[in-house]
From TrEMBL:
Residues 13-67 form the HTH cro/C1-type domain. It comes from the Bacteria. Keywords: DNA-binding. InterPro entries: Cro/C1-type_HTH, Cupin_2, Lambda_DNA-bd_dom_sf, RmlC-like_jellyroll, RmlC_Cupin_sf, TransReg_Diox_bact_type. This is XRE family transcriptional regulator.
Length: 174
């Protein structure tokens, strides 16, 4: 059975899909997920994974935070990776999301391309990581900061023996 947050996320995905005039089949195809899985997510019978949320955010043209209804404290997790929404700031020009990331040492988190113009920034609080995007990569250690275009597929790998703790800021143009 899905959790209350899972039910709320499913309802939000269903509402966004309806607002955009997308059929269940069309969104599932665009997101690269099964129609049955999307149906179960929308009806609250399945909790969303981070991979699924990222896959849906792109075709829906919304920031990840909108899928959790911009609820501070919302937690989205997968194996070895957890992110907590700390704050969302929305203006006429942008939506800025601030997430606390926790990535187990050695774990890689891949993300599909976000909407056009999206930029991500990472401030490493503890541990180290490599961020790869396009044909570029940056290595970040404790206390360092990096930024990259997130409208291309990208990934983070927690390097070394220490789990990565970082602040991730995602800025999406309106």
């Amino acid at each position: 059975m899905a959790s209350q947050p899972g039910i709320a996320v499913g309802a939000r995905v269903r509402a966004l899909r309806a607002e955009r005039g997308l059929s269940l089949s069309a969104l599932a195809s665009a997101a690269g997920i099964g129609k049955g899985s999307l149906s179960e997510l929308e009806t609250g019978r399945r909790n969303p994974t981070l991979d699924t949320l990222y896959a849906l955010a792109g075709p829906l043209g919304v920031p990840l935070a909108s899928l959790v209804d911009f609820r501070d404290g919302a937690v989205v997790a997968d194996e070895g990776f957890e992110t907590v929404l700390l704050h969302t700031e929305r203006t006429a020009a942008t939506t800025s999301e601030v997430w606390l990331l926790r990535v187990r040492a050695g774990v890689t988190r891949s993300s599909p391309a976000h909407s056009a113009g999206v930029v991500e920034q990472l401030v490493v609080l503890a541990g180290a990581c490599r961020v790869e995007y396009g044909d570029q990569e940056i290595d970040l250690g404790t206390g360092s900061h990096g930024a990259w275009p997130a409208d291309v597929p990208h990934r983070y790998t927690a390097t070394g023996d220490t789990d990565l703790r970082a602040i991730n800021v995602i800025v999406t143009p309106a």
